User: What shape does this take?
Amino acid sequence: MTIEVTINGEPRGVEGPLTVADLLVLLGLTRGKVAVERNLEIVPRSTYEAVAVVDGDRFEIVRFIGGG
Assistant: This one.
């Protein structure tokens, strides 16, 4: 089943069902180095495996980059 979501302003179809943790894997992102906002609410890292991605969700995903 294809789920239509928006990730950082870009529409995207993903195969579901999946969780936020699954979505991060699909995107090739390391969960410890990102912050995820879903439908204008921050998703606590401890709930990534429990939060289902549903049709119409809007995500903003920010990667942390170190430097000096």
In short: Helices lie at 20-27. The beta strands are 2-7, 10-15, 34-38, 41-42, 58-63.
